[in-house]
Amino acid sequence: MKVLVIGGGGREHAMAWALARSERVAEVIVAPGNAGTAREEKVRNVQVGAEDIPALVQIAREQGVDFTVVGPEAPLVAGVVDAFEEAGLDCLGPGSAAAELEGSKAFAKAFMARHGIPTAAHRTFEELDAAAEYIRECRPPLVVKADGLASGKGVEVAGTLDEALLAAERMLSGQAFGAAGQRVVVEECLQGEELSFIALVDGEAVVPLASSQDHKPRDDGDQGPNTGGMGAYTPAPLMDEALHRRVMEEVIRPTVRGLAAEGRPYRGFLYAGLMVDAEGNPRVLEYNCRLGDPEAQPLMLRLRSDFAALCRAALDGRLAGEAPEWDERSALGVVMAAAGYPGPVERGAAIHGLERPLGEGCKVFHGGTALGEDGAVLTSGGRVLCCCALGGSLAEAQRRAYEAVAGIEWEGAFYRRDIGARGLSAR
C-alpha cells in the first residue's frame, strides 16, 4: 500500500514512522512533512501545505495513494475528508460537520448539554459587556476559552476576576487569537487530574487506545502559559479499569452515538481531554478530532499492532473486535521548544546532536524542523522535537528520555524538566 499523511508536526512524524513499520506499506508520503520524516525509511515528503485541500486531493490521485490519514485539526475542520470522499478517495478523519466538535468550543459545550455528557458549568458570549457581567457574578478561578481553533493555546486560566475580564477582552477584541476569539466560552475551573483519552472510531465501533497524560503549561510545576503540550507519557497510572469503563460509557460512546443521531457520523481518532476529580468522576475539558500531540509520539512508540491495518479497518467499518497490542513498558516524551514559545519564535537555528546513536526503544520525533540547503536540520517552529523513550517503569522511561534530550542543543532551546512527575506522584 501507499499511504498519505497530512501534516508536518511531531504527531505526523510519529504516524508516518508507525505506518512505515507495516509490512503492508510500501511508501508513506507526508505533506508537507519535516526534516524528521524526510529521513525515515520508506517515507517521502511532498511540498504541499496541510490546508491546501485541492492540491492534497491531486497528490493522492497522482501518486495512487490507497488511503490518507489526517494529522492536524485545521484541514479536518476545513473539510479535507469531505473533499477526498467527493473525489472517491479514502481519508481517515471526521468530516467537517463532525469536526466542529473541536472547531467550535461553543458547539461542543452545547452538544454535551444535549447528550448529558459531563463537563464544566459554562456560558458562551459574543459581546464583551455580557461576558463581563457574567464573570463578575462568578467566583474565581475561571477558564476563558476562544471558541475557534488556536493551535491548543486558546485557553486562559484566570485566578482572579480581573484576569478573567482581561482574557475575555483580549479574545473578543481579536487581539489574542483573531477570528478564533470572536466568541468565547467562560466556564468554571475544574479541579483534579487531567487525563487524555483517545479512541479510534469507524462510525459505530470504538477501539480505545492506551491511556496517556500530557503537560500543557510551559514551565515546571505546571506554571506559565498554556501550550500545545510540553510532553506526555503512557500509560497513565490514574486510569484503572473502573475509570476506563466510566469514560467509555459516560463520554466516548454517548459522543459517538450523539453525533450519529445528529447526522454527523464520526470516523477517525476521537480525543477527550478529561478532568478527573478526587472522587474519580470524569468531566470533559475539550474534544480533539485527531490524535493528540505530543501524546501520539509515546503512544506510537508503544504500539505493537500494525498501525496501517488499524487505520484501514476504521475506514472499512471493521473495527469491532479489534484490540490493539501495546508494549507493556511505559513510554515518555519530552518536548524541546524554541525560545519564545508559545509566542512568536525565531526560525533557522542549527540543531546539533541528532546524529548521536540512541539505545533500543528511544526515538526523537521532529515537529518544527526543516532541512537546510546543506542538509543541516534547522528549527522551523515552536515545538521543535519530542524525545521519547520506553522504560520498564515510568521512572526509567523518564530517565532515558531526558538522556536523549541532554545530547541535543541549539541556541534558545528549552524544555520542562518534570515531565512525568504527576504520574510518578500518582504511583
From TrEMBL:
SMART domains assigned: GARS_A, GARS_C
Biochemical pathway: Purine metabolism; IMP biosynthesis via de novo pathway; N(1)-(5-phospho-D-ribosyl)glycinamide from 5-phospho-alpha-D-ribose 1-diphosphate: step 2/2
Enzyme class: ligase
Key word Nucleotide-binding present: yes
A GO term, aspect molecular function: ligase activity
One Pfam family cited in the UniProt record for this chain: GARS_N
InterPro entries named in the record: ATP-grasp, ATP_grasp_subdomain_1, PreATP-grasp_dom_sf, PRibGlycinamid_synth_ATP-grasp, PRibGlycinamide_synth, PRibGlycinamide_synth_C-dom, PRibGlycinamide_synth_C_sf, PRibGlycinamide_synth_CS
Cofactor(s) this protein cannot do without: Mg(2+); Mn(2+)
Domain called ATP-grasp: residue spans: 109-316
Enzyme Commission identifier(s): 6.3.4.13
Region Disordered: start-end pairs: 209-231
Keyword vocabulary terms for this entry: ATP-binding, Ligase, Nucleotide-binding, Purine biosynthesis
Domain of life: Bacteria
Catalytic reactions on record: 5-phospho-beta-D-ribosylamine + glycine + ATP = N(1)-(5-phospho-beta-D-ribosyl)glycinamide + ADP + phosphate + H(+)
Similarity comment: Belongs to the GARS family.
NCBIfam families, A to Z: purD
Record PANTHER family: PHOSPHORIBOSYLAMINE--GLYCINE LIGASE, PHOSPHORIBOSYLAMINE--GLYCINE LIGASE, CHLOROPLASTIC
UniProt protein name: Phosphoribosylamine--glycine ligase
Organism: Halorhodospira neutriphila
